[in-house]
Amino acid sequence: MSPAHGTALVTGASSGIGESFARQLAADGYDLVLVARDARRLDALAHHLADEYGLEAVPLPADLSTDAGCAVVEERLRSKRAPVDLLVNNAGVTLNTPFLRSTATDETRLLQVNVHAVMRLTLAALPGMAQRRGGDVINVSSIAGFGVTMPGSTYPASKAWVTSFSESVAASVRPYGVRVMALCPGYTRTELHQRAGIDMSRTPAWMWLEADAVVQAALRDLRRGRVVSVPDWRYKLAAFALRHLPRSVLRLAARDTRGQVSSTAAG
Question: Which of 39, 112, 179, 216 is 20 to 30 A from 226 (CA-CA)?
Answer without folding.
Answer: 112
